[in-house]
Design brief:
With 128 residues, the protein is mostly helical. The chain has a domain of 55 residues. The protein has three helices and no strands. The longest helix is centred in the N-terminal third of the chain and has 67 residues. It is elongated, with a radius of gyration of 42 Å.
């Protein structure tokens, strides 16, 4: 009878070990699944923000396209950059009578003398 009790106790220990191993595997799988769910939720929030930003950008671009194709924009471009005139208008282009005027070269003032070589090295080495 003692031998039968030992076999049962031994089987119970083996069963408990197997049950513990299976429990560890199940807990590991649940932990992994919870981590995946958290990661997916975080990615979903990030993607939602990116989608909102892209929708805003699309709205801005559609507004720019609508303005660029409007009559007002075309008329502004034609008069400004293309130098076109409307009906009954004359284009006036101002021109100088003497030809191109040369821009005078500025003369450096002599009151600001060039720094000495020692001052240049000092500024390079010590930043002052």
């Amino acid at each position: 009878m003692g031998n039968d009790l030992q076999k049962r106790f031994k089987l119970s220990n083996v069963g408990l070990v197997i049950l513990a191993v299976v429990g560890v595997f199940i807990l590991g799988d649940l932990t992994r699944r919870m981590a995946d769910a958290r990661r997916l939720e975080r990615d979903s929030r990030i993607l939602g923000t990116q989608v909102k930003d892209l929708e805003d950008e699309q709205t801005d671009l559609e507004t720019q396209v609508a303005y660029a194709t409007s009559e007002v924009m075309v008329e502004q471009w034609a008069r400004g950059e293309a130098k076109m005139v409307g009906r009954g208008e004359k284009l006036v282009v101002p021109m100088s009578a003497d030809g191109p005027v040369a821009t005078p070269t500025p003369i450096p003032s002599s009151s600001q003398g060039l720094p000495s070589k020692l001052d240049v090295w000092w500024a390079l080495l010590f930043g002052e």
